[in-house]
Design a protein that fits this description.
Elements: H1 4-24, H2 31-51, H3 59-78, H4 85-91, H5 107-129, H6 137-164, H7 166-173, H8 181-207, H9 211-218
Length: 227
């Protein structure tokens, strides 16, 4: 059972996100694309709110979700293909990322990588606490789910671009002329998820005395239940 302290923590994150959302809702570069990009974000927050009574993530997981949504809102405000991160880097005195691709905006790549890196751990909590995944499966299944969600999102992008078409479809799809954009996005999300699960496994290896035994036991075939 979570304490009132946990609820206050979640409310603080929600309040901070509401402020961030409101600021970036002011004069977005493309209002139609902003509304389309926010549809899934609103749905995700609504789902978290509705299920909070029955399933509450750890504070760390809520913080990871918060960071990802903040990154997403930047992309929604500017459209992912036009986020001026190069100018921000130069303003800080840091080198830009022009060498990664001639004229291509890579903010969408960062968002997909962040999806895997930041959201795989909350997915792991679901598998551990609901499906009671242990050992190898508690790390593999979140990565598998990350890859599945990444694929589903690419299909949603394709469907939305087909339905809306025109400039809105192009802005939402954000391929920037790259025929392998979807595959690269899914690969980066998978890489982010892999890194997150490897780091989680290393932390647990250090903290759990029965880590190796649990891992080995999870890979053993279990006898079928009778009845």
């Amino acid at each position: 059972m979570k304490t009132p302290r946990h609820s206050r923590y979640v409310l603080v994150l929600l309040g901070l996100f509401a402020i961030w959302w409101a600021v970036l809702a002011i004069h977005p570069l493309d209002r139609s694309d902003w509304m389309l990009e926010n549809a899934l974000a609103v749905a995700a927050i609504g789902l978290l709110a509705v299920t909070y009574r029955w399933f509450r993530f750890s504070r760390f997981s809520y913080a990871l979700i918060f960071v990802f949504l903040c990154v997403h809102e930047i992309g929604a405000h500017y459209t992912y293909a036009k986020v001026p991160y190069q100018a921000w880097l130069h303003a800080l005195g840091w080198p830009g990322l022009e060498s990664l691709g001639a004229g291509r905006n890579h903010f969408d790549r960062l968002a997909h990588f962040s999806f895997g890196l930041l959201l795989s751990y909350p997915m792991r909590e679901v598998f551990v606490r609901i499906a009671q995944a242990r050992g190898f499966w508690s790390y593999y299944l979140p990565l598998d789910m990350t890859m599945a969600f990444s694929m589903i999102f690419e299909l949603i992008e394709w469907g939305a671009a087909t339905v809306f078409g025109g400039d809105l479809g192009v802005a939402y799809l954000g391929t920037q002329g790259d025929p392998w954009d979807a595959q690269k996005d899914m690969a980066l999300a998978s890489l982010g998820g892999l890194i997150a699960m490897v780091v989680t496994a290393l932390v647990n290896l250090h903290q759990q005395r029965d880590f190796a035994r649990e891992w080995i036991e999870s890979l053993r075939a279990k006898p079928p239940r009778r009845g």
